Amino acid sequence: MSDPGALRQLTVTRVRVMLREPEIIFWVFAFPIFLAMGLGLAFSDPTPERIPVAVEEGTLDDGMLERMSRLNPDLQLEPMTPADAADALRRGEVALVLARMDAEVVFRFDPTRSEGRAASAATDRALQEAAGGTRPVAIRAQEVEQRGQRYIDWLIPGIIGFNLMSTGLWGVGFYVTQSRQSLQLKRLVATPMPRGYFLLAQILARFFFLLVEVPLLVLFAWLVFGVEMAGDALSLALVVLVGAACFSGLGLLACSRARTTEGVSGIINVIIMPMVVLSGVFFSPTRFPDAVQPLIQILPLTALNDALRAVYNDGLPVTAAAGEMGLLLLWTAAAFFLALRLFRWQ
Fold first, then answer.
1. Region of poorest pLDDT, from 145-149, 165-169, 201-205, 248-252
2. Coil, strand or helix: which one is 44?
3. Please, what's the b/e burial string for 301-319 (b: 16 or more CB within 10 A of its CB; e: otherwise)?
């Protein structure tokens, strides 16, 4: 016969166990409040987001640009060189590029991004109104389909960087904490095995999987989307290796004091979530206010993504990303140093 008192005692015991875990208390009560506060501050501005449009130099005169901006304040018209405009379109910093070709004004946009067509329609209306209701020149829409200039070409290196971050943090941090929680780590320490071997094995195993995960993603992007790597494989391999070492070190630091898998999961998410939003995985970080740009630039995923795109998209040698590589190495050294100092074996 079931005893209702036993169920009550089990429930009370479980609640007490949860209350003894500060990580659980933080994630259940404090984190939702911080998240709501942060997102509320980020999206509380009632001003509508303006549509960024690049205007190649010589396409429209200053008077026409001023009239278009006055007639449609939602348009953010930015004069650029042709090279800068093409790069901004590829990075997703602008939705449309205006260029002059003979007697025509060309509206150039990426057909895979919906905002390009919306920007084209809004810009067309503003241009006709600014011209006084007459069409000064013919307008032609041009969809960007050239490899290397599409959004997907810019996105793939960001996906590689995101994958290196997530697998490094979860692959190292979660497994080590799981071993500590199950007392496997304590039993290993009791053997003649040097302690450093256990930690070194986690890093070497992480590097082993790089031989499969990165080439597989590169091959998939090439076969399915036609994304070609502009740089050399050796430069890409060096950037990937340093990036993997950096996030493996951060994974080790994340689990250095965590006692439960719930606790380390929260710590890892704290590391991952801001960088997924800020570090230019899916869209350019230049969309964020100038006040937060210094913070964005020192994040390890920002440095990794910038170095990957320099090699993958721009075809530059790894030496061209020396600043980003130096920042990654600094993060790597700091993470491993702190992790080894704080690491708890039991």
1. 145-149
2. coil
3. bbbbbbbbbbbbbeebebe
Listing from the earlier edge strand, what are the strands of the sheet with 96-101?
75-80, 51-56, 96-101, 104-109, 138-143
Q: Name the packing angle between helices 151-168 and 300-312 (round to 10°).
A: 140
From first CA to last CA, the distance across the chain in angstroms is: 41
Full-model pTM: 0.73
In a domain, 4, yes or no: no
- Same domain for 209 and 68, yes or no, is no
The pLDDT tens digits of the residues spanning 24-65 come to 666 666 666 766 665 555 555 555 567 888 888 888 877 888
DSSP code, position 319:
G
How far apart CA 14 and CA 31 sit, in angstroms, is: 21
Question: Do 131 and 159 sit in the same domain of this protein?
Answer: no
Q: Tell me how crowded residue 54 is: count the other CB atoms within 10 A of its CB.
A: 26
CA atoms within 13 A on the CB side of 257: 8
Residue 111: give the domain boundaries. Answer: 51-143
**CB burial string 257-278: b at 16+ within 10 A, e below:** ebeebebbbbbbbebbeebbbb
Q: Is 254 helix (H, G, I), strand (E, B) or coil?
A: helix
List, for residues 216-240, the tens digit of each pLDDT value.
Answer: 999 998 998 888 888 899 999 999 9
Q: Is 281 helix (H, G, I), strand (E, B) or coil?
A: coil
> What was the pLDDT predicted at 36?
65
**326 located within any domain:** yes
pLDDT tens digits, 64-111: 888 888 888 888 888 888 888 888 887 777 888 888 877 778 888 877
CA-based nearest residue to 166, from 279, 333, 84: 279
